[in-house]
Amino acid sequence: IGARLSVLSQSELYKAIRHHHKNDTRKNTHRAVKQALDTIEATSGSRPPPSQLWLALKKRKHKTLTQKWCAFNWKALHQAHKVGEYWLHTRMKDSRMPCTECNAPAESLEHILLECRVSHQELVWDLVKSQWELTGREWPCINMGLILGISAIQIRDPDGKVNHALTRLFQILVSESCYLIWCLRCEWRIGREANPMRRHTVSEVTARWQSAINKRLRMDWKLTSRAIYKKKALPQRLVARTWQLIAPNLQYINEKRIEGVLVGMGIERRPPGRNR
Ligand SMILES: [Zn+2]
């Protein structure tokens, strides 16, 4: 807003502010998309056009990402979550902008998902990593670009070919885990009024994570039903290959022998790790 305030009428002033905000939003989105594409290029070896990010979130190929995740991811790319600096120009700035527990001046989405000491992000990422290691692949460094661009990330085999099953598993694990961290944060900060006595416990978070991943596995399996989904049914082979490495009991899923946990058995015997 370059013009001198005194010479602007009220409506001109509003127009200028609105324009300024619009430009800000566009710049933020541009920055988030670039961050995602940079990480995709570094991880997958090729840089998709920005349109592919939006298209992937809209099309949800093979139903790998949930509708809820895609809405979250879309909002995150637009920096539209009401966290951190969103509160900068409001009266709630002092109470809502910072993460007081961590002494962070702004509780950004990145802070919540990757840095916060109270969102349980560290525990959740430990759980994912422990499952991913069953695939024999290295767990990559998770950063905000990877989260924002998860819809277009590709995991490749040593011969350079895209491994569709592992790509799918990675996308499911990362998106479900992020979404859980986000939900835990909102439950505690809003639902439980950030009461330190009412933080989620380690066993509670572990159970929630297992349940989220197992729910996805069961949903995936249901979606292979040709009787129900006809031509839209997911290829059974793809779903089996997605999960076989981390859910060795997968073959029992059609029998009623296993009602409970398929992914993450044995986690509860593992002490929660401190190092990622
Ligand atoms: Zn924090």
Could you give the topology of this structure?
Layout: H1 10-44, H2 50-59, H3 67-77, H4 93-96, H5 109-115, H6 121-132, H7 144-148, H8 164-191, H9 202-222, H10 226-229, H11 236-243
Helix pairs in contact: 6-8, 8-9, 8-11
The chain binds zinc ion.
Organism: Ephemerocybe angulata
Protein name: Reverse transcriptase zinc-binding domain-containing protein
Describe the overall structure.
This is Reverse transcriptase zinc-binding domain-containing protein. It comes from Ephemerocybe angulata. This protein has 276 residues and is mostly helical. The protein has a domain at 5-80 and 118-199. The chain is built from eleven helices and no strands. Helix 8 (164-191) crosses helix 11. Bound molecules: zinc ion. Zinc ion binds next to loops.
Rough outline: globular
| Overall radius of gyration | 21 Å
Q: Distance N terminus to C terminus? A: 45 Å
Say which molecules are bound, naming each kind only once.
zinc ion
Q: Helix and strand succession?
A: HHHHHHHHHHH
Helix content: 40-55%
Q: What proportion of the residues form beta strands (DSSP E)?
A: under 5%
Question: Could you state the oligomeric state of the chains shown?
Answer: single chain
Please state the average pLDDT score: 87
